[in-house]
Design the sequence.
């Protein structure tokens, strides 16, 4: 579970709710027409830009990444791949079936090796899986970014609708209040939806894309090195380029300490 997302959203919502209660009644900030304009209009605009299946898939991907994202460091993957190489050298490819691997694609690669598939098939299959996964992340980012852009725009549309209703009923004081509420609350709803939900999730998906692009490529190169029967030391050295420079130095010092 990604606590940062949950804490951030709850903190943002809490600050807004606290400000509302300190200034008056919560029900003053509840307006059904405003909700319909912002959420309904934003969803309609998003559906125009993307197919329905893509939008539903994006919501599933965004929710999974935002709330259940578990970050796997490249250094951990390198150590697991090196362990796989050690198992293959000692017990053969079938030894990988008894090795516990948490990362799904790395586990799939280990199974490919254990099943004896040739190198070309393994690389092609894993590259296809990586590209499909990255495409889902990119599509999810685009959908949330689109909804984040549309929400404030429909908030402004709602403001204009409310102002028109207010100006058209100036002779009726009882109609001015509800119309003004629509005018102001749609802008509020649009800003909150965009800046507290949609755009942060879109940014998280963008970060996830860059991170996973490195990790999945690392996994493919690592699996291929294991398939070729390279030693754990060579595998570590090959995959070290995927680490930041500071981590590379730390890993080298750690390997030297173990060798000593």
Sequence:
């Amino acid at each position: 579970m990604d606590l940062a997302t949950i804490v951030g959203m709850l903190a943002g919502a809490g600050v807004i709710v606290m400000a509302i209660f300190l200034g008056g009644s919560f029900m003053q900030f509840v307006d059904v027409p405003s909700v319909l304009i912002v959420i309904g209009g934003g969803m309609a605009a998003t559906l125009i830009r993307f197919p329905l299946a893509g939008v539903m898939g994006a919501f599933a991907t965004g929710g999974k990444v935002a709330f259940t994202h578990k970050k796997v460091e490249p250094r951990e993957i390198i150590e697991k791949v090196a362990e796989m190489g050690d198992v293959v050298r000692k017990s053969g490819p079938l030894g990988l079936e008894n090795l516990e691997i948490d990362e799904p694609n790395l586990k799939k690669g280990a199974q490919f090796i254990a099943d004896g598939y040739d190198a070309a098939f393994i690389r092609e299959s894993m590259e296809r899986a990586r590209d499909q996964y990255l495409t889902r992340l990119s599509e999810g980012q685009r959908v949330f970014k689109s909804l984040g852009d549309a929400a404030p725009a429909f908030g402004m549309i709602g403001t204009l609708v409310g102002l028109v209703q207010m100006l058209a009923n100036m002779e009726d004081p009882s109609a001015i209040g509800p119309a003004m509420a629509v005018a102001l609350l749609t802008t509020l709803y649009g800003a909150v939806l965009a800046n507290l939900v949609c755009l942060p999730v879109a940014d998280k998906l963008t970060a996830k894309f860059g991170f996973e692009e490195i990790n999945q490529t690392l996994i493919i190169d690592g699996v291929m090195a294991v398939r070729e029967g390279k030693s754990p030391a060579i595998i570590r050295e090959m995959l070290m380029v995927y680490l930041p420079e500071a981590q590379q130095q730390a890993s080298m010092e750690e390997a030297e300490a173990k060798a000593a």
